[in-house]
Each structure stands twice: as structure tokens, then as C-alpha cells.
Amino acid sequence: MISSCKIETKMKKVYIEPLLKTFRLIANKKRLISQFENPLWISNEFCVKSTIGIHFDLCQLEVSKICQQVRESLMKDSVPFNIGPNIKTRNEWLKHNSYISSQIFCDNTNNPDLILVCDGTYFYCERSSNNTFQRSTYSVQKKRHLVKTFVICTTDGFIVDIYGLYEATKNDSSILLDIFYTEDDLMRLIAHAINKKYKLKLQYPAFINKNQNQLSTFDAITTRLVTKSRYVVEAMNAFLKKSFKALSEVKNKSLTHIIDDYKIACTLVNKFLKRLFSDDDYNIEIVNNMKRKLNTINELECHIDDFPKIDEQIIKNHITLGSYQLTQGKSYLAEHLNNEKYEIRV
């Protein structure tokens, strides 16, 4: 353990042993890491395993074996009973529908549909000498190498399952399609929501077309309805990365078991975390207001659709009748704003 530490940190054995012994006593890890010559070489996994090894007088290889045994035990005895589409009956899953989502998206509240929220997330990984892996994990958007996972949860934050690993080049729609083709347990769970044409009732935020500057009134309202329910999956993804640091950025050698680590983390969340309910005290009033405003007409839009586009030339020729007032406009505005007697109305 010490020899490998010496190579990574470029420090001698006599210096690194006291630091590792005091690591578990220091609340702020940054204070310890800042003492190393090159802290970029030190990962969370390295620090944790080294701390455990020092505390129990074990070498890092023994700590790695014990961690693997614990991981296998949790995957066998705990994960199958706390995460997965088949751990509950359909009626039990329906109890996880939030009141707001049920009232908005279910046509028949007496026989409600199961509402699931899906979203992809990612974690950063290292570069690789394997060209195929290098290309498949590079994200043009993030400008970094990453691997994707896909989370499905209920509207109260109970995680149904997490799927992966997927390439950085795959989008959420292709990932979801792969899951539908390969995961029989999930298909049995959502069988009641599938119509005769093998389609789901999908709700997703609206997108602006190329020729549009903004969403229409109806699209903007329906997008808010979806956002009101889909925030839970964003909150769960953020909670997992914030609470379990090893899930935010991993080394390539840990990719073989990272999905198991994700499932273990989701098991702990389902078992011990309080369910998410937004605005539980005012949900009836909120639902009534959202339904009432669903078909609201934007009256202002009728007046501004034909509002003329005024350029600088029109202002000079027809409003200011010259360029002097136009160039002095900023000075006039600053003067009036400094004087509390004036109001600027647009």
C-alpha cells in the first residue's frame, strides 16, 4: 500500500503514514488533500480504502476484497428486495402516485394509471487508450468523457430501477427504447398503460421549433404541468451524486461494478429516505388553479402579434426627426432615473 502511495503522491513513506492515520479525524478532506504535492492523483476511492486500511491495519488489497464481498452480499440480500419493478404489486405501485400528478395526468381517477418519471444521468470517467471506448464515451456537449445511466422513479421519489451503462453518444430516447426491448419486468409493470398500438401515454416538455422564438401559450402551460411532476427524478439524481461521491466521477477500473454501486445507493434511498411530496398542504388548491389555467387565452398576444418592428432608421425619420435625441437617449434616461420624481413606463 505504501509503495503505491509513494508513486502516486511523490512522497516518502515516513510522511504519508501520519497523514493517512489522521485522515479519518479530519472533518474537511480538502485540508488533508492540500498537503499532498499533486492532489489530482488522489481519488475518493483511494482515500477511503487507505483510511480503512490504516484504521483496521489492513493492506489495500485486503480492503478491496472486503469491499467486493460487501458489495456482492448487498446485491444478493438487499438490492433485489428494495429496487426493481417486481418488488411490489401494481396496486402497491399506484400508492406512489402523487396527488397532483394523478389529478393532472390520469383521465380516470377511480382507475388511475401508473405514473413513472424517467431521465438519464451521467458520471465522468477517465480517458482510455482503447479508441473504441474513447469515442463512445466522449460527450460533445460536456467536452469530457462520461458514461450514462437511466433512472426510472415514481412521482414521490421512489426509485423503480436504474439501468446502464450506456455510451455518451446515446440519447434518452434510444436508451429508453433499449430498456423496453430488454427489460421484461418493467414491461409487465407498465402493461396496463400500453394501448392496442403498443404506445404509452407520454408527457414531456415542449420544444421550440427552428422558426419559433418562444413557446406558444398552450405549450408553455403543458410544459409547466410536466415540470411539476418530473422534478423528482432530477432531485433524486442530484441527491445520489451529492450523497455518494463515488458516483459522480469514477476511474475506468471501477466501471465493472459502478452499476452495482448505483443500485446499492438506490436501495439505501428507497429504504431510508423520506418520500418527496411537493406542496402537500396546498395540493388541492394548486391542482384547481392548474386545471383552470390550462385553457387560458393569452389576451396580450392578440394585441402584440401585429406590433410593428421599429428599427433605428424609422426612429430617426418618424419619431425623433433626427439623430440628436437618439444619441442623447441614454443620458436622458440616466438623469430621469436618478430623480425619484420621474417614472419610466414601457
TrEMBL record:
Its cofactor is a divalent metal cation. Residues 119-270 form the DDE Tnp4 domain. It holds the Pfam family DDE_Tnp_4. One of its GO terms (molecular function) is metal ion binding. InterPro entries: HARBI1_dom (IPR027806). It comes from the Eukaryota. The lineage of its organism: Eukaryota, Metazoa, Spiralia, Gnathifera, Rotifera. This is DDE Tnp4 domain-containing protein. Keywords: Metal-binding.
